[in-house]
Write a structure and sequence with these properties.
Layout: E1 2-4, E2 10-12, H1 21-31, H2 37-45, H3 47-53, H4 57-73, H5 81-90, H6 111-120, H7 129-135, H8 148-162, E3 172-176, H9 182-195, E4 201-206, H10 209-224, E5 234-240, E6 256-259, H11 274-283, H12 290-317, E7 323-329, H13 345-354, E8 365-368, E9 378-383
Parallel strand pairs: 3-4, 3-6, 4-5, 6-7
Antiparallel strand pairs: 1-2, 7-9, 8-9
Length: 388
């Protein structure tokens, strides 16, 4: 049925409550009796009218309360407010206590390198939201050599295959080391384009304070410009934080946890020379040079442990059964000295037992980098164990 309201809008009440305007009008005298001045006089002057009305007052009140309840609960035709409110209730806020103490980590002790990284990822126009929205898709970010648009397209297939099947409206995702937040936004755009999936809340951390502040501003701007009013994506918060210590993030909280890149140890042995490290890689294969082999093995063992520190924290904050995704993994330095160093695919199989990761061993899968990328980097997918 279509009920007419004082503001001119209409509402349909079904399921047998009211089915026609005539029925609503018939209930009018019982539901919402409008007392005119003449009726007020009648109440004062006609005791019989009052006597006939008084026994019906409890029923009148009950009917009025029932109709008011039905009116409030019924969705409004053509109005998005009720739908939006219901969808918004699906978002669950996760409280983060962002660290306030200075961060100290093994990997970021070169201020010049940090500033260079920040400068390379700077967006050219952040003076106003409008300027940023017009330009961000055509510029590189977070150390990538490709623009946002190019990066997003290169990730499309992987996100479709490994993110989309594990997300639903109302879920929360977390990116460890999220940079200025554009990787998170790319994921939101891709899952919406590939599966019409929205209503996701994003969180993250970033070691570099300037980038963490940028991420919060950028995500506020981008998510504030959404066209989907019914089920918008939301930003939780991006904290300045060390990805090897996410103690400020509650355990078992997120429906999907990922990182766009585990920043490897830049110089595990503090050799301070890229060329000398390359020489060690070559020497370990010459004449059974045990010294070079020992140093190379030590360097890789430190790198392995470093990666595991990130992974352990990502697993901890994921919900039982949730995906943990590590993108852009480089091979060990001696396998590819043209990259920064990393771990081999075999490392992940070995790590489940060696480090005791709380994941399902059979869930481990590998993905390729998308179109336009050369090199040997790869993606990793695994599921946290279900609760026992």
């Amino acid at each position: 049925m279509t009920t007419k309201r004082s503001n001119g809008t209409t509402s349909k009440i079904s399921n047998g409550y009211l089915s026609s305007d005539e029925e609503f009008e018939e209930l009018g005298p019982l539901v919402a009796m409008e007392l005119t001045s003449g009726q007020e006089d009648l109440l004062d002057k006609d005791p019989q009218f009052c006597g006939n009305l008084l026994p019906k007052l409890p029923w009148l009140l009950a009917l009025m309360l029932l109709i008011v309840a039905l009116y409030v609960m019924a969705p409004t035709t053509g109005s998005k407010n009720s739908t939006t409110t219901m969808h918004h209730h699906n978002h669950h806020h996760i409280h983060l206590e962002c660290p306030t103490e200075p961060l100290s980590t093994l990997n970021f002790d070169d201020d010049a390198a940090i500033q260079d990284y920040v400068a390379n990822g700077t967006q050219p126009c952040t003076k106003t939201p409008a300027c940023f929205l017009e330009t961000f898709r055509d510029h590189v970010f977070d150390g990538h050599t490709r623009t946002y648009t190019q990066f997003k397209e290169s990730e499309r297939e992987f996100v479709r295959d490994f993110f989309v099947p594990h997300l639903k409206p109302g879920d929360a995702i977390y990116e460890s080391a999220c940079g200025i937040g554009l990787n998170l936004f790319a994921v939101l755009e891709l899952v919406a384009e590939e599966a019409n999936l929205t209503g996701i809340t994003v969180y993250g951390n970033e070691y570099i304070e300037e980038n963490a502040n940028r991420a919060n501003w950028i995500l506020d701007v981008l998510l504030g410009a959404q066209l989907d009013e019914d089920m918008p994506n939301k930003k939780g918060h991006v904290c300045r934080g060390d990805s090897t210590d996410l103690s400020f993030v509650p355990a078992n909280s997120f429906d999907l946890v990922y990182t766009g890149f585990i920043s490897p140890l830049w110089d595990p042995l503090h050799i301070n020379s890229h060329s000398k490290m390359k020489e060690l890689c070559l020497d370990q294969n010459k004449n059974d040079d045990w010294k070079a082999q020992t140093l190379v093995n030590l360097s890789q063992s430190m790198q392995d442990d470093w990666f595991s520190q990130w992974v352990v924290e990502m697993i901890r904050i994921a919900k039982p059964g949730a995906p943990i995704i590590i993108e852009e993994n480089a091979l060990p330095f001696c396998s590819n000295p043209h990259d920064y160093g990393g771990v081999s695919p075999a490392y992940w199989h070995h790590g489940v037992d060696h480090y005791g990761w709380n994941v399902q061993p059979s869930s481990l899968q590998f993905g390729k980098r998308g179109n336009g990328y050369k090199g040997s980097r790869y993606h990793v997918f695994m599921l946290k164990k279900e609760e026992e």
